[in-house]
């Protein structure tokens, strides 16, 4: 059972999402929160698998709440946004969010997003990835402390990380490297474990931080 916490200051949004998710046999909404501070408190009490987190909320915004929730738990955060070019995209990924979901997503998209994030995958729309890449281009060169950590990876693992950062799925990476999808999945797992990364979203951030992949590659 995937346990979900919904954090949004709009009652209609919370009710709608709770209703959608409540019809699924593998998902349980364990609590709702009306602001970031309440989300942090409820997450600490209940340790949900996934938090659906709005960004713009009173008392404490969703970004700060995300940082605090992810500081010491295995909970994953899926950011709710009104539009896919939200100014908070880069900062939310930095905070450790596993992806983004538009508030006008269909019921099926909502359910699938929760399942994807709960399974440890990242949920990044192509438009979000493009914005992330543009932000790295604006910030400039690689960060030295993280570059050294690349040495922990094998050549094939480094190759897989680079392809992940370009937005390729496991199936697409398998086709590019002419290996099985299961082999790619194994490599991805090792990359995340060696680098201490939560999921593919953080892997993308890491790859650009180190200069392994650069905007335009």
UniProtKB/TrEMBL annotation:
Residues 3-118 form the Response regulatory domain. The modification 4-aspartylphosphate is found at residue 54. Residues 146-211 form the HTH luxR-type domain. Keywords: DNA-binding, Phosphoprotein, Transcription, Transcription regulation. Transmembrane segments: none annotated. The keyword Transcription applies. The keyword Lyase does not apply. It comes from the Bacteria. PROSITE patterns: HTH_LUXR_1, HTH_LUXR_2, RESPONSE_REGULATORY. This is Response regulator. It comes from Sphaerisporangium dianthi.
């Amino acid at each position: 059972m995937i346990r979900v916490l919904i954090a949004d200051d709009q009652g209609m949004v919370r009710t709608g999402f709770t209703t959608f998710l409540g019809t699924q046999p593998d998902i349980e909404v364990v609590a709702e929160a009306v602001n970031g501070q309440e989300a942090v408190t409820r997450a600490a009490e209940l340790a949900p698998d996934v938090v659906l987190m709005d960004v713009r909320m009173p008392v404490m915004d969703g970004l700060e709440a995300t940082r605090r929730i992810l500081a010491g738990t295995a909970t994953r955060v899926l950011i709710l946004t009104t539009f896919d070019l939200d100014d908070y995209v880069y900062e939310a990924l930095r905070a450790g969010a596993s992806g983004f979901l538009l508030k006008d997503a269909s019921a099926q998209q909502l359910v699938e997003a929760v399942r994807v994030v709960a399974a440890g995958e990242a949920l990044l729309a192509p438009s979000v990835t493009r914005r992330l890449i543009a932000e790295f281009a604006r910030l400039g060169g690689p960060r030295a402390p993280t570059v050294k950590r690349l040495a922990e990876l094998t050549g094939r693992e480094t190759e897989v990380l680079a392809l992940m950062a370009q937005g390729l799925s496991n199936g697409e990476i398998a086709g590019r490297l002419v290996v099985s999808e299961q082999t790619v999945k194994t490599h991805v797992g090792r990359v995340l474990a060696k680098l201490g990364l939560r999921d593919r979203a953080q892997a993308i951030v890491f790859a650009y931080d180190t200069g392994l992949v650069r905007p335009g590659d």
